Amino acid sequence: MDLGLAGRRALVTGAGKGIGRSTALALHAAGARVVAVSRTQADLDSLVHEPFLEVTKEACDRSFDVNLRAVIQVSQIVARGLVARGTPGAIVHVSSQASQRALTNHTVYCSTKGAIDMLTKVMALELGPHKIRVNAVNPTVVMTPMGQVNWSDPQKAKAMLDRIPLGQFAEVEHVVDSILFLLSDRSGMTTGSTLPVDGGFLAA
């Protein structure tokens, strides 16, 4: 199915591995001109999930830097370029099911992902007059290398899988396909939305 992405410019952050890398490759295969940016020091793998009573200032600052401030800054670069050229466009943020459902020991992560969802809505409101659409995808656990390591404990995995009606974690391709759809003209009347890619977790 042609998504109409050929010849378009695409900026992909976190393109060194996982969802970012797969998205960049899929966009390239669809004929888009891709600029890929990999994370270095601000790598999500090193973020620590702490109980609320043990959250430190350092962990809080680092999570907000990676999960929110960096997204704002990159989105501003993209949006300003589109506005300056008078070009319509689409921006897709990678949020999480944790933005809408509390998870134990994920105080800061849930908070920053909740902020991403609201950022998406505010950007959609302000950038709509420029014909720039802004949406987010909200995956469950995704079987990236990091996901496989963090959810390799069968007991831990079962507790989460029991809450997912489809009974499985997401593969990277599930998230990438949703991102490509939201970037394409096939979602031309969709903006300010959060798209669960969660196997029904948020519906349960």
- Average pLDDT rating: 86
Shape: globular
pLDDT < 50 stretches: 38-46
CATH architectural category? 3-Layer(aba) Sandwich
Tell me the count of domains: 1
The percent of residues in helical segments reads 40-55%
Helical stretch tally: 6
- What is the H-and-E element order? EHEHEHEHHHE
**Quaternary structure of the protein:** single chain
* Largest sheet, spatial ordering of strands: 3-4-5
Gyration radius, in Å? 17 Å
The CATH topology name reads Rossmann fold
Please count the beta strands (DSSP E, at least 2 residues each).
Answer: 5
Q: What is the strand content? A: 5-15%
Largest sheet: 3 strands, parallel
Supply the helix-strand structural class: alpha/beta
Q: Using the coordinates above, name the CATH class.
A: Alpha Beta
Taking the alpha carbons of the first and last residues, their distance comes to 31 Å
What's the layout of helices and strands?
Elements: E1 9-13, H1 18-29, E2 33-37, H2 57-85, E3 89-94, H3 107-127, E4 132-139, H4 145-150, H5 154-161, H6 172-183, E5 194-197
Parallel strand pairs: 1-2, 3-4, 4-5
Helix pairs in contact: 1-6, 2-3
Description:
The protein is α/β, with parallel strands linked by helices and 204 residues long. It has a single domain (9-203), classed as NAD(P)-binding Rossmann-like Domain (Rossmann fold). It is 43% helix and 14% strand. It is built from six helices and five strands; from the N terminus they run E-H-E-H-E-H-E-H-H-H-E. It has helices at 18-29, 57-85, 107-127, 145-150, 154-161, 172-183, and strands at residues 9-13, 33-37, 89-94, 132-139, 194-197. The strands form two sheets. It has a three-stranded parallel sheet with strand order 3-4-5, sandwiched between helices. Strand 3 (89-94), helix 3 and strand 4 form a beta-alpha-beta unit. The radius of gyration is 17 Å and the shape is globular. It starts with 8 loop residues before the first strand and ends in a 7-residue tail after the last strand. Residues 38-46 have low confidence and may be disordered.
